[in-house]
C-alpha cells in the first residue's frame, strides 16, 4: 500500500504531464484513487505538485505568480448553487478563461431597486488611472456609472452577503458595487479588470486589498438588443439578461488569463449592470 501511494518523482512527472496536456482534475485523480490513494491525500498531492510546477514555471518565465481566486463551482457539477438566501443557477461554464454564467442571482425587484438607487447619482464613467492611482474619463467607456460604498445600504448588504456565499469569498475582500448604465450605442471596449502592476499608480491601489482576482457582472435589465459581455479572444459572449450574472476570474495580472472582456454596444434600448470586483486581500 505504501508503495502504491508514495509521491515518487515519476508520479510527479506524470501529474505535471497531465496538467500540461490540459487534462481535467478528475482525470488526474482517478488513476491515483484506482491505485489505492485516499481521496484527500491524492487531492493534496496533485495540488502541491501542480502549484510547485506553476510557481517554478512562473519564476523561470518572469510571469507574475498565480493567486488564489474564487472558485464557486467545479466542472459538470450541480446546476444549482446555494447562495444562502437564494438558489443560483449555473447556466454555462468555461475553463479557460474561467467564466461562469449564473442565472437567478438577483430578483427582478432587486434589479429595479438597484437601478432606482443608482439613477440619480450617475456620472460619465471613469476608470482607475494607473499613472496616478486616481480616476480618469476614458473614451473606450461610454457608459455612465456610480459606486456604492460596500455595505452602504440594506440592499447592497444583502447582495454582498449573497455574493460572498455564492463565490465563497469574504465580503471584506470585495469592492463596493459599481452600477453602470449604457444608453443606445454605448459600450465598454475590451479591457482587463486587474491592475497592471508595472504602471506607476498601481502600487497605491494594490496597497489596499491587493489585486483584483475576479469580477461578477450582474445584469439589472435585459437590453432590447445588444449589450452582451464579450470575451473576444475566445469568441464567447454572455447575453445580458435581467437577474443573471457573468463571473470570471484571473489568477494573475497577465493576458495569459484570457480575461480580456468588454461590454458590446447596446444596439437598442439601454443596459444596466452592477459589477462586483473581488480582491486578493481585505479591501479595508
Ligand atoms: O457591461 C459589461 O458587460 C461589462 C462590464 C465590465 O467589464 C466592468 O464593469 O468591468
Ligand atoms: Fe470589466
UniProtKB/TrEMBL annotation:
Cofactor(s) of this protein: L-ascorbate
Keyword Transport: no
UniProt keyword annotations, A-Z: Dioxygenase, Iron, Metal-binding, Oxidoreductase, Vitamin C
Signal peptide: none
Domain annotation Fe2OG dioxygenase: ranges: 173-280
PROSITE patterns in UniProt: FE2OG_OXY
InterPro entries, per the entry: Oxoglu/Fe-dep_dioxygenase_dom, P4HA-like, Pro_4_hyd_alph, Pro_4_hyd_alph_FE2OG_OXY
Domain of life: Bacteria
Protein name, as recorded: 2OG-Fe(II) oxygenase
Organism of origin: Marilutibacter chinensis
Amino acid at each position: 500500500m505504501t508503495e502504491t501511494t508514495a509521491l515518487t518523482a515519476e508520479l510527479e512527472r506524470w501529474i505535471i504531464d497531465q496538467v500540461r496536456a490540459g487534462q481535467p482534475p478528475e482525470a488526474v485523480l482517478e488513476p491515483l484513487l484506482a491505485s489505492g490513494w485516499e481521496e484527500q491525500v491524492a487531492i493534496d498531492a496533485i495540488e502541491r505538485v501542480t502549484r510547485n510546477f506553476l510557481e517554478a514555471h512562473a519564476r523561470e518565465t518572469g510571469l507574475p505568480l498565480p493567486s488564489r481566486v474564487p472558485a464557486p463551482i467545479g466542472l459538470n457539477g450541480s446546476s444549482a448553487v446555494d447562495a444562502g438566501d437564494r438558489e443560483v443557477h449555473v447556466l454555462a461554464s468555461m475553463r479557460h478563461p474561467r467564466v461562469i454564467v449564473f442565472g437567478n442571482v438577483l430578483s427582478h425587484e432587486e434589479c429595479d431597486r438597484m437601478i432606482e438607487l443608482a439613477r440619480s447619482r450617475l456620472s460619465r464613467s471613469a476608470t482607475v488611472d494607473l499613472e496616478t492611482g486616481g480616476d480618469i474619463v476614458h473614451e473606450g467607456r461610454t457608459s455612465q456609472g456610480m459606486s456604492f460604498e460596500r455595505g452602504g445600504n440594506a440592499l447592497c448588504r444583502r447582495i454582498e452577503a449573497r455574493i460572498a456565499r455564492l463565490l465563497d469569498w469574504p465580503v471584506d475582500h470585495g469592492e463596493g458595487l459599481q452600477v453602470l448604465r449604457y444608453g443606445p450605442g454605448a459600450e465598454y471596449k475590451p479591457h482587463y479588470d486587474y491592475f497592471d502592476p508595472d504602471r506607476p499608480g498601481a502600487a497605491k491601489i494594490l496597497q489596499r486589498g491587493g489585486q483584483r482576482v475576479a469580477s461578477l457582472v450582474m445584469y439589472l435589465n435585459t437590453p432590447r438588443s445588444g449589450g452582451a459581455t464579450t470575451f473576444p479572444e475566445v469568441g464567447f459572449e454572455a447575453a445580458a439578461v435581467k437577474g443573471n450574472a457573468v463571473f470570471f476570474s484571473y489568477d494573475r495580472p497577465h493576458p495569459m488569463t484570457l480575461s480580456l472582456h468588454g461590454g458590446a454596444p447596446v444596439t437598442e434600448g439601454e443596459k444596466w449592470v452592477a459589477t462586483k470586483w473581488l480582491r486578493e486581500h481585505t479591501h479595508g
